[in-house]
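Methods — Computational structure assignment.
A single polypeptide chain was analysed. Its primary sequence is given first, followed by the predicted tertiary structure written as structure tokens.
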Amino acid sequence: MKLSTKSRYGARILLELAKHHETGAPLQVSEIARLQDIPMKYLEQLVRLLRLAGIVRSVRGPKGGHILNVPPEEISLGQVVRIFEGQEELVECISSPDTCVKATGCRFRQAWKEATEALYANLDSVKISDLMAPHDPIE
């Protein structure tokens, strides 16, 4: 499975907002775009999805912008992926067996289901707050 740019950028937006969460001060889209090197037009689309999911809140006015609506320790990477990828399962036949003519006797379906569960268990265990501490880059 390869995560889309939406999921990767969405996580980066949330991380940037989490860094400023304690201050209570909203961040403008232009500032998030600059800090995270995300094109502003694309960032606006992603923030909209995060608002619809209830994770981000917009503040109007000259000092307005966006803030987390949920504490960073309550936002998991699994949630982020679910918001931006749309489908939770690695293969559609897990939740909709009628989409595959071989689903009934499929020897792989259970393996795909277990792999999906393991993936999301791992992603759900990582909170945005966990990612705020400095760490060593992956080699």
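Note: The radius of gyration is 18 Å.
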